[in-house]
Amino acid sequence: MSHKKSQLCCRANVYTQVPDGGWGWVVAVSFFFVEVFTYGIIKSFGVFFNDLMDSFNESNSRISWIISICVFVLTFTAPLSTVLSSRFGHRLVVMLGGLLVSAGMVTAAFSQKVYHMYIAIGIVSGLGFCFSFLPTVTILSQYFDRRRSVVTAVASTGECFAMFAFAPAITALKETV
């Protein structure tokens, strides 16, 4: 890949005039799914709460720290996500976030102690959630001006949709498996 092409995929798009739609609708749908798979997963974590308490033989307060650390890392590393998005572009940061979330969740599946979950889900996946979520929120402003508030509101319903769908689906899956 030439140097010019590598620069194109590693920088932010800057429009002189906001297009108010077009490719922005794909970005809005993508934001919906990022909402589903970030906050939807985080808020559906309670379905596994009792299973984790039994599996690790730990108290509810020690298990609660898993998501507490994840949300702390998600919010505390927001400036880092902003700097990386400005420097390398939104796409690359969101892809890095997806890789971190995947690595954290796969690693968590092999956890033997609760502190392994603190690191895998709390730190690694929390950082990935930050890198996935925050750039998608800010990128909508590049594609929408007049309808920005409506598009952001509709795309943000992904969190509610996930909470509505994931809890019963995960519960049914747990009973089946």
From TrEMBL:
The chain crosses the membrane at residues 21-42, 62-80, 92-111, 117-140. One of its GO terms (molecular function) is transmembrane transporter activity. PROSITE patterns: MFS (PS50850). Residues 24-177 form the Major facilitator superfamily (MFS) profile domain. This is Monocarboxylate transporter 7. It is found in: Membrane. Gene3D superfamilies: MFS general substrate transporter like domains (1.20.1250.20). PANTHER family: MONOCARBOXYLATE TRANSPORTER, MONOCARBOXYLATE TRANSPORTER 7. It holds the Pfam family MFS_1. It is a multi-pass membrane protein.
